[in-house]
Amino acid sequence: MEFKDYYATLGVDRTATQAEIKRAYRKLARRYHPDVSKEPDAEARFKEVAEAHEALIDPERRAAYDEIGRRPASGQPFEPPPGWDSGFEFSGRGEPDGRHGDAADFSAFFESLFGRGARSAAEQGGDHHAKVDIELLDAYRGARRTIVLRVPVVGADGRAVLQERRLEVGIPKGVREGQHLRLAGQGAAGHGGAPAGDLYLEIRFLPHPLFRLDGRDIRFDLPVTPWEAALGATVTAPTPEGPVQLTIPPGSPPGRTLRLKGKGLPGTPPGDLHAVLVIDLPAAVSESQKQAYAALARAFPDHDPRAALEA
């Protein structure tokens, strides 16, 4: 994906006012409109100008764009920093206004930041949206947490500045990644006694040091010694509910998965918990440890782990 320098596309400074952005867009739109322009790349340039205008003319989208951080040159490879938009509160998501014709087909860069539909300017009584990152174990157990949202507030100059607001949020047990939590009345205020809009929080999970989520299933790596894998053993294994005793069958190869049914993410039905066996080979440091490995080699003279690699 290529980075788009929307300010450079419109030929304005990053400190430009909304009025300056609008004037620059109108000038360039007249120049490159496919119906009147004689330049060979007019249609492509018109789409670029229209996309830059959509990104910068709305104060919320502009504030989000300015939050990206590292900014390579236009056209250079780019990926948004992980979690850059977490806790960024937007007003209701709207569709492009349609004035730009085919320019509504935005680039992958635009869609990665704002989604397929451009976010509309703030609407009184409209719904707000934000992405929030939560701990996997909060989804497993349910929790009540304080979240901090960055809210773009439009100033007198037409530009948005970020303000924080804190909300107490109940995280339901078994909430899924990508699920939206509705907070009634926490969106935009209404006029003339009309009710306020709602706030929708899109759930994302923070990486966990042990557990990996796969739908409602949870996976984790369980280290075992070579003799535990070969002879079988009962070992202590971690789970989101606390440690359990897990039986390792004799002759277990590395990568074998042991399933704990119903111990994954809660739901109807609940997911499963999968322990993936990883052989932890101890280093031979002392003389007795080296002799133990030598005895193992003598005990298995015909074992060739590379036999399958022979041409």
What's the arrangement of secondary structure elements?
Blueprint: H1 6-10, H2 18-32, H3 42-57, H4 59-66, E1 90-91, H5 108-114, E2 128-134, H6 136-141, E3 143-154, E4 160-171, E5 180-183, E6 199-205, E7 212-214, E8 217-224, H7 226-231, E9 233-237, E10 244-248, E11 257-260, E12 273-279, H8 287-299
Parallel strand pairs: 2-6, 8-12
Antiparallel strand pairs: 1-2, 3-4, 5-6, 7-8, 9-10, 11-12
How would you describe what is shown here?
The protein is an alpha+beta fold. The protein has three domains: 1-57, DnaJ domain (Helix Hairpins, Orthogonal Bundle), CATH 1.10.287.110; 128-205, HSP40/DNAj peptide-binding domain (Sandwich), CATH 2.60.260; 212-303, Sandwich (HSP40/DNAj peptide-binding domain), CATH 2.60.260.20. The protein is 24% helix and 24% strand. It has eight helices and twelve strands. It has helices at residues 6-10, 18-32, 42-57, 59-66, 108-114, 136-141, 226-231, 287-299, and strands at residues 90-91, 128-134, 143-154, 160-171, 180-183, 199-205, 212-214, 217-224, 233-237, 244-248, 257-260, 273-279. The strands form four sheets. Strands 1-2-6-5 form a four-stranded mixed β-sheet. A four-stranded mixed β-sheet has the order 7-8-12-11. A hairpin with a 5-residue loop joins strand 3 (143-154) and strand 4. Helix 2 (18-32) packs antiparallel against helix 3. Residues 93-103 and 117-124 have low confidence and may be disordered.
